[in-house]
Design a protein that fits this description.
mainly alpha
Length: 76
């Protein structure tokens, strides 16, 4: 029983580290200015929307993993 809980916690931490790394490495330096003069606030809003979408995806993945682990535990 304790192994499944530790697996869930380990998966949760791995997803948080990967998500944070993706945000810092790819979303942080991303700039939508290019040749168009774009307001820095709008640039930040676009980054926030991307970050929130990634957070939503991570929560969905973590929920699926949690359900899979605990359904597996209930069957045994």
């Amino acid at each position: 029983m304790s192994t499944t809980i530790f697996t869930f916690i380990f998966t949760m931490w791995i997803l948080m580290l990967i998500g944070g790394g993706l945000l810092v490495l790819f979303i942080g330096p991303l700039s939508f200015a290019g040749n168009i003069d774009i307001d820095p606030t709008l640039n930040s809003v676009i980054k926030v929307i991307i970050a929130l979408a990634l957070i939503f995806v991570w929560i969905v993945i973590l929920t699926k993993v949690k359900n899979w682990i605990f359904k597996k535990q209930l069957k045994s």
